[in-house]
Amino acid sequence: MFNGIQGSPNAKKSRSRRLSCGFKILQKIAGYCGELTSETGVDIASICCLSECSEEFIKRSVCPEML
């Protein structure tokens, strides 16, 4: 059924970059906000992996009490 169908040769690299970016964003959040204990409903990794986010944006989105 799926013979001859191949994924993009760059798909594995792209997935790896997304995971790496998400991990870096989590490290930034931990540095700015400390340990996270609540869910804000903001998909910060998707937003900040597409374009660089400032410390202020991250704090406003994830831990506004730290401002």
TrEMBL record:
**The species this protein was found in:** Caenorhabditis nigoni
Question: Which GO MF terms are attached to this record?
Answer: hormone activity
Q: Where in the cell is it found?
A: Secreted
Regarding protein family, the annotation reads: Belongs to the insulin family.
Q: Lineage of the source organism?
A: Eukaryota, Metazoa, Ecdysozoa, Nematoda, Chromadorea
Q: What is this protein called?
A: Uncharacterized protein
Chief site of localization: secreted
The alphabetized UniProt keywords are: Disulfide bond, Secreted, Signal
InterPro entries with a match to the protein in the record: Insulin-like_regulatory, Insulin-like_sf, Nem_insulin-like_b-type
- UniProt lists the gene as Cnig_chr_II.g7442
Q: Which GO terms describe its cellular component?
A: extracellular region
